[in-house]
Specification:
The complex is a heterodimer of chains A (about 550) and B (about 325). Chain A is of the alpha+beta class. Chain A folds into 3 domains: about 30-60 and about 185-275 and about 515-555, D-Maltodextrin-Binding Protein, domain 2 (3-Layer(aba) Sandwich); about 65-175, Dipeptide-binding Protein, domain 1 (Alpha-Beta Complex); about 280-510, Dipeptide-binding Protein, domain 3, CATH 3.10.105. Chain A contains 16 helices and 20 strands. In chain A, a hairpin with a 2-residue loop joins strand 6 (about 140-145) and strand 7 (about 150-155). Chain A is globular, with a radius of gyration of 27 Å. Chain B has about 325 residues and is mainly alpha-helical. Chain B has a domain at about 95-290 and about 305-315: MetI-like (MetI-like fold), CATH 1.10.3720. In chain B, about 75% of the residues lie in helices and about 0% in strands. The chains are: A alpha+beta (about 550), B mainly alpha (about 325).
Chain lengths: ~550, ~325
Amino acid sequence: MKGRARLWVASIFSLLILALLACSDHTQVMPEGVLVVSQEQQASWIRNFNPLTTAAAARWPTLAGIYEPLFVYNSVKAEYVPWLGLSYRWLSGNQVLRVETRDSVLWSDGKPFSAKDVTFTFKLMKQFPALDRRGVWNFLADVITVDSNTVDFHFSRIYIPGFDEIAAQPIVPEHIWSKIEDPVTYPNENPVATGPFTEVRMFKNQVFELGRNPHYWQKGLPKIEALRFPALPSNDRANLALVFDEIDWAGNFVPAIDRVYVRRDPEHHHYWFPLTGSTIFLYANTTRKPFDDVRVRKALSMAIDRQFLIDVALFGYSRPSDPSALSDAYASWPKIEVSEQENWVRYNPEAARRMLDEAGLVLDSEGRRHLPDGSPLEFEIITVSGWSDWVRACQVIARTYTELGLKTSVRTYDFSAWFQNVLEGNFDLALGWSYEGPTPYVFYRWLMASETVKPVGEATTGNWHRYGSPRADDVLKAFEKEADPVKQRDLSLRLQRIFFEEAPAIPLYPNPSWAEYNARRFVGFPSAENPYADPSPNKFDRGECLLVLTSLRPR
Amino acid sequence: MRYILRRLGFYLVAAWAAVTLNFFLPRLMPGDPATALFARFRGQLSPEAMEALRETFGLTEAPLVKQYLTYLGHILRGDMGISVAYFPSEVSGVIATGLLWTILIAGTAVVVSFAIGTTLGIIAASRRGGWLDNVLPSVLIFVGSFPYFWLAMVVLFIMGFTLRWFPLGHAYSDNLTPSLSLEFISSVLTHAFLPVATVVVATLGGWLLSMRNNMVSVLGSDYVNLARAKGLKPARVIMRYAARNALLPSVTGFGMALGYILGGSLLTEIVFSYPGQGYLLVQAVRNQDYPLMQGIFLMITLAVLGANLIIDVVYLWLDPRTREIGR
């Protein structure tokens, strides 16, 4: 029995140790002056701060925080903010873009920044097409340094929207990158950059920290000492940390946020979801019958109760799309006026039925609709398994259509399989996003430009519904050559009109830009009361996060 | 010796078959890494980025056979290529970030669960009809049949979220740097406790039951009766005669479990945000990251085969009969 006694002693002893360990307080101690951010969801971090390869690989905020672009685009105010570039103008009949760069900017190693770094960056992208993720060399002919703070971009054709792609490009130092043999696979573990946070203070697989740039050109900024990024593998886990005050700034989807987050600490827990994301569309494959008929597309649009769909799928975080289909990022652009009668971007089931009848999709005695040649109609709407907002939206739509006599089922795929089908045009109906730019040009181009239409079976990144409008082509061509903001507004109205008449796709709602913040330790976040920029850390592609990072300060 | 050599030959063939499957299976999936990466951004990347992505990953159009031969060559040299999901890191580097932690929690869990479960199984069988035998197996099987995900969430919610006894995630406190200090080690232990404990609780029942059932049948055999009749001490009969034999099937299971450790415990890692292999594998599959998938599968394959080889050797020691066959 001695053995048993020993066993008991051993187990009691180990229990005691565990109890001791467990008794220490496990509330995460928040580091003083360090802003904790959750933007990427990863189980462990890989050290990569290369701003030129694909966005997916580099740690946030490599593109807008470590490195900086020439001009930052503020999507809430719809204006460019001079950043590394001071000003720009078009020369030689809009064939040349001249950019003045900022004086007195230093790289984080103390060496001066100049226009030569800008030229170098763009030349590097020409040499390595894998780095040209905005496709600038599709429209550029040459980039020339005029003097130490002037760069000329020579265009191969007049292409005004190209400015936006140039403006958003993060600039790298020539004295470092010219010595790198293969910039495509270079992990850039110790970045030398111009941004507010450049010093990697710590890098472990579950957390890393970025400290202040000692030579930052905006004197006295940033006011935050460092940024910290805990690795959180899932949305649920990130939300848990958010609720527990372990995260100061996040860009996650939080379900029922008022109850889950705000109510726990109404004084400090805040969110602001401006509707500046891309517009979510129901794309109908126009190469298939009956979606080639504009009346059918309009009818399918009028059948959907968008407000109900938004409440069910999106916790009411958005608003129904309007006839322009534009999100609030274009709030400063004028919108077309349409009469209630002809408006097909609203809920009107009677009109939907009438229009389906007109299109010849007649109802049989069993309540199902047929094509004029008698074949029964049956649709499949495809979406991504796990994107729960989209799955719910598709279910609402499928039920609505089935009630109309158009038997519709929802089919979910793993996202690469779904995307493959969408890109190659193998679908009846699919939910999808839109592409955005500072002007509506990019938006409408990928909705209805003939040049973006590819045959079914060939992958295309946009225009999945495969619709080309010769009328829109002319206006889009004019848009490419128009530098005058007033005339751009007229062109935008004409594009809206064409979109409204031809109904190439069915707009549902503008996606919110997700942003939650905790004001317990830091203040200065954008909010509905102080809307100085987009509040989301996800807005890094055009440098917008920089506006927030340089405005935040400890309480 | 011949026995071991024969087994080695068998494992070589098995390794080749696994490596080959490893190459072809991922390629049967629809899509490619560039589209997968692009889709993940839900429209935040401009359409032009797709071209750059394809350029970056250098998607090759070479015939499969040629790709296969290069792949075999690289594996022999230990070069697993560059990861797509964690571009431009080397696959070996990516795997290394989580490997130790995976071995720590999954390994500890398997060993602890096996040791406790088997011991309890022996005790239960030797006191058949006692309270331990009547209550414990059913309770453990009951607990074990909850979906693990749910069980772990509940434990995390109560012990971590409500009572705050244990941290909510990660392998050690974010404020510490890895070192051999007491503070760091105790941090690692507290962080590992919940993940390990939940896995142990969920898998204990299986070990217990299989050991108990084996014991029961062995205890009824003639040679055990003979040992008893000879008047050997009951403890000696149980441990040296019955348990040693009854352990054989459990040891096989243990070997398999050890091998799968390197696959990581996906659910554990997700629930407790623990850095490890399981989540890497999911990322790899989602991003059509062939090199990373192949790297992880290769590790799993080698680990399973290696564990089986060790088990074969252990068998030689445990079971004299295998030694006979070997000659």
